[in-house]
Each structure stands twice: as C-alpha cells, then as structure tokens.
Write a structure and sequence with these properties.
By secondary structure, the protein is of the alpha+beta class. It contains 5 helices and 8 strands.
C-alpha cells in the first residue's frame, strides 16, 4: 500500500514505469521526459533524526532523498511541459493555506509492502486536498493504492531492520507548520534535487 516511489531504488525503470504510468526513465532527457515529484518536506531537527534512522537500518535511500510526505509520486512529464507544470503548481499553492502537521509514532504496510513509516496524526486532510489538486491538469495521474500521507523510514530492508525502525521510532513526536511544498526533479545519477519551492498562500479554511 505504498505509492511513495521516492523510496524505491532511484534508477529502477520498471518500477518507475509501473508506478508513474509512463515509459520514461529517471532523468531521461534524451527521451524528452523528466521525472518529477512533489512533497511536503520534514524540517529539522526531525529530518536528520529520520535520516539517521533510515541509515541505521541499512536503507540505501537514506542519502538519496530527505524525509517527506509525498503529494505526487515520481511522475514522468515531457520536458516541453515543464513551464505548464510550474504554472499549475503555482496555482495549486495559491489555493491552499499553510497548515500544521503532527507526526506521531510508526505504522507499516506489511504484509502488502515491506515499508515502515512515521504516521501523520494531524494534517492528513490538508495533504489529501493538496495532493488531489496537484494530481490534476498536466500532472493528472492515477495511483496504485489509495493516497495515505506518511513519512517512510524503512523499505526493502531485512525484516529485523523493519522491526527495529518500527520499535525505535514508535514514540517519535514532531509538530511543525507547513508553509510550502517542494517540487523535486530526479537527476541522471538517480539523486533528487529541489527544482522549486511553492509557498502556500491560499485563504484560511
């Protein structure tokens, strides 16, 4: 139950093709496409804590992408539509206000998917609304599973390491204000870089 392919092997074309609904590879500019994603970043000091735990359990993605709540999973878009994508995301950000997030404890998608995550206790509805708007227009796409906001901390690691992450972060608590979301772009080497930040400037709900 995980469409958060930021946490999969970054250069697995089969996974990207299946989850992103395209034949494009990460950073495949030769094919006139680029893979992008949209996330709510987890700020410090909690970001480093989660990175450290991800490295501790041996997850190779620990150094590839910072902790986040996914709004748009990795999605291949034509390079020619990058301006349209930027304008679309600007409109989405302008329609939604800043909101509070509270992360609390751990959850897992096992046995369906070998994933342990930190749960979103507050801010779920805001993430759902923004994610639905992001996945429209030039970024319209379907998901393999129902959207479920979360912060992945372990995936594709041995069972005992999944158990370690689940228990070790079971009492984690993080509260922060979300005043923007970020667009990431995957580079040819597989790493993710921030393409742009979009301030949330919409009217209060």
């Amino acid at each position: 139950m995980n469409d958060d392919t930021f946490v999969h092997r970054a250069v697995d074309p089969g996974e990207l093709a299946d989850r992103a609904g395209s034949g494009g590879r990460a950073g495949d500019r030769a094919g006139d496409t680029v893979v992008v994603g949209v996330v709510v970043p987890v700020p410090e000091p909690w970001a480093q804590l989660l990175v450290d735990w991800r490295a501790k359990v041996g997850d190779p993605q620990a150094s590839m992408v910072p902790p986040h709540v996914t709004l748009l999973p990795p999605t291949a878009v034509p390079v020619a539509e990058r301006t349209a994508v930027t304008e679309h995301l600007c409109r989405v950000a302008a329609a939604h206000p800043a909101f509070d997030v509270h992360l609390a404890g751990t959850g897992t998608f096992r046995p369906i998917s070998e994933v342990v995550f930190v749960a979103v206790a507050l801010g779920i509805a805001d993430c759902e609304l923004i994610a639905a708007d992001v996945r429209s227009g030039p970024l319209e796409r379907s998901l393999n599973f129902p959207y479920h906001p979360h912060v992945t901390v372990a995936q594709d690691v041995p069972t005992d390491m999944l158990d370690l992450a689940y228990a070790g972060l079971s009492e984690v608590q993080a509260e922060f204000r979300v005043d923007h979301f970020q667009e990431f772009e995957q580079r040819p080497g597989g790493e993710w870089t921030i393409a742009r930040r979009y301030p949330l400037t919409g009217p209060p709900r």
